[in-house]
């Protein structure tokens, strides 16, 4: 069964406030998606719709051709990992894995136990006594071991230190390769996670700013550096996202793709054309509205 996600003209209102406005997205099954957006862009709202935690105000959502809200069959195929309040949780790791095993039909107990060991989670402490990073590692363990066709991590790394986050990312890649399925990662840590993404969705103020394969997106950005007047001449007419100047040297971030002929012209002028990262594009694309 294929679990493509089809979101059509979805709007979500909290009272009078529109958190998502006329969103349409098609997420083909089997890929790793990065969902990025600034604070309040609507990421958690969108992910909550997919996990059937809430219903859209307008529009339609289909997962594998079926609408997810209050649909037990679809809900069982989606696992949303998010920051959980464990302040009242009296269970230990074993009890948490027992519960996950009961409710998640594809749950791989052996794999979960391997991850518990990998993340060095204590077996003798109650989960409410775990550090924040340990609680996040437990969530990630349950999320991955659930092997749900659609697995969503909403800023699931909160509190994890850098080596633990790296372990999380590597584990996602390895497990996705061994058990292909849709994985959606929402994050603010764009620079350290961009290598995970096959496709990127950028939400901006409740709208989809773009959705495309990461390599195509990153190829569209470039930085042009050299003598200020030559750089100005070269980038005139291009979409410019950011400018830095130090003395007579200028660097301009452009967006829209640079042709081979343009690269040759830049080389002729002694200009350096370099790549830009997803993080840089994200920062500057969400600073201003894209001109169509
Ligand atoms: N229950 C609610 N009632 C009213 N407004 C809400 C509610 N939940 C979210 N919002 C608003 O909807 C908008 C989108 O919130 P959401 O949590 O989806 O954003 P986000 O992209 O996940 O943000 P962050 O990166 O800060 O976690 C924000 O302006 C937020 O204030």
From TrEMBL:
It holds the Pfam family ABC_tran. InterPro entries: AAA+_ATPase, ABC_transporter-like_ATP-bd, P-loop_NTPase. CDD domains: ABC_DR_subfamily_A. Keywords: ATP-binding, Nucleotide-binding. This is ABC-2 type transport system ATP-binding protein. It comes from the Bacteria. The keyword Nucleotide-binding applies. It comes from Evansella caseinilytica. One of its GO terms (molecular function) is ATP hydrolysis activity. Residues 5-230 form the ABC transporter domain.
